[in-house]
Amino acid sequence: MTQMAQTQVPEEDRLRADLYNFMGLILAGPPDQMLLDQCAGLSGDESELGQGFRALSTLAAKTRPAGAESEFNKLFIGLGRGELLPYASYYLTGFLNEKPLAALRQDMMARGLERAANVFEPEDNIASLMEMMGAMIAGRFSAPATLSQQKTFFNRHIAPWAGHFFADLEGAKNSVFYAPVGKIGRAFMQIETEAFRLSKDQ
Hints:
By secondary structure, the protein is an all-alpha fold. It has eleven helices and no strands. It has helices at 2-7, 11-28, 33-40, 48-62, 65-76, 88-93, 99-111, 126-138, 147-158, 162-171, 178-198. Helix 3 crosses helix 4. The protein is globular and about 40 Å long.
């Protein structure tokens, strides 16, 4: 059934879903050697997004898993807390586990999405939201979301804070490998925001 849904997704949307999935993967935990090798193979053009991919490729070729893990821990875990708290609730209210998380859980339930049993992070963390958006576009768990459904989810749960988070990640004092990840995310959020703004709901 998932395979049937996949074939109905236009190429442009498959590419969008792939980028959301990539962002979800690289923000969910420290990259292993396989993911670093994949990042090292990326290329980009002169756009801001493309420049981010080129910078990430260069850094990934020089980064080892232990170094990436150390940076990830400083950014997101730390002693007590990391440099950044990548949660919608925190960015929008200053506290964890607040109304934005409750609203997200309601929308997840309505779409038949649920947190995996082995995931203990609150669902409003940036990695989970990127993964959810990718899954909705590609129709990984059910029929692909319509443009209107994508726009509603994006505007409600991602647009209000993700660009700010990615800008913070790009400029964080502990960001080296993750600085271009922030640049890619910030540029991608700008592209998506503008595309949804110009779109006619379907």
